[in-house]
């Protein structure tokens, strides 16, 4: 008879470890963006290498003189992935709500990655507008995944109002600085124990993604770290393994940290040399 | 004639032009509009209503789709 606490093998399929967001049930805990790749083929190969099942897109004006953008959507919709439209570039709740409604109409999904930005320099969220937009979108039936500052109180408010996922940043969008405030991320995990938490933005390399998962986060959302890597497809694979490794480590339970060494080999039976 | 804005560009149309007519002039029909959404004066217009919405002087029309994003 199998023991209830049998060790995980590392194979996603065997873990039965799903990420649930709204009605979605995802095997992969890596969410990947579609922006900034050297070419469409590299984007497609990176998406495949990442194993991501939820990929972000922006909502932008149709280029009325060039219909090639339609092929971008066709490309994505031919893949076994779900689309997560974002409200990138919105500075007010009003803008973000309209973009979300347009995304729902265009892509026939209630999912929305809610971004309401405070300024161009930092691209940090405007908390007041973010909370307002989240509240109204939830009331309108959206499955809101809210991109947030790494502020525990804001994240708790977003969770309490009914966001399907709360997504604090590791560091500013596109900065690649990794997790600058692990203490806050840990505190957010403590304050928001039951809603999916996803680290979104600022991831620079695979160890950042693993660290986020080791803090107990449910997933990682990233774009630039892959699309602008020297070898995007390889970095996408690295992120896939990092997220899985971090998740397994979190579940396995790390040893306590200590200031002084503790020998792993027993001193019992050690030889003595003659003086 | 009426002066309107379509995706940020000023254009002129005849009085009484419908949203459907404007979209059709851009080769966008209800049938071909998969992945597209339209708003007029900051209000979303569902595909089912494209035929019936009349465009008035000064209207601001936004036609969007999914693009690369993070």
Protein described:
The complex is a heterodimer of chains A (275) and B (70). Chain A is of the alpha/beta class. Chain A has a single domain (13-252), classed as TIM Barrel. Helix content of chain A is 39%, strand content 16%. Chain A is built from 10 helices and 10 strands. Chain A has helices at 12-15, 40-50, 68-77, 93-107, 127-139, 152-161, 182-191, 206-214, 224-227, 232-252; strands at 19-21, 24-26, 30-33, 54-61, 82-85, 111-114, 143-148, 165-168, 198-200, 219-222. In chain A, strand 3 (30-33), helix 2 and strand 4 (54-61) form a beta-alpha-beta unit. Chain A is globular, with a radius of gyration of 21 Å. Chain A starts with 11 loop residues before the first helix and ends in a 23-residue tail after the last helix. With 70 residues, chain B is mostly beta strands. Chain B has one domain: Roll (Ubiquitin-like (UB roll)), CATH 3.10.20.30. Helices cover 9% and strands 37% of the residues of chain B. Chain B is built from 1 helix and 5 strands; from the N terminus they run ββαβββ. The longest helix of chain B is centred in the first third of the chain and has 6 residues, at 19-24. The model of chain B has no long low-confidence stretch (mean pLDDT 92). Classes of the chains: A alpha/beta (275), B mainly beta (70). Strand 4 of chain A pairs antiparallel with strand 5 of chain B, so a sheet runs across the interface.
CATH superfamily of chain B: Beta-grasp domain
CATH third-tier fold name of chain A: TIM Barrel
Low-confidence stretches of chain B: none
Label the structural class of chain B: mainly beta
Query: What's the end-to-end separation of chain B, in Å?
Result: 41 Å
Main sheet attributes: strand count, strand direction, barrel closure of chain B = 5 strands, mixed
Rg on CA atoms of chain B, Å = 12 Å
**Could you give the order of strands across the largest sheet of chain B?**
2-1-5-3-4
CATH class wording of chain B:
Alpha Beta
Largest interface: A-B, 39 and 24 residues
N-to-C order of helices and strands of chain B: EEHEEE
Measured by DSSP, the beta-strand proportion of chain A falls in 15-25%
- Flag low-confidence runs of chain A: 1-7
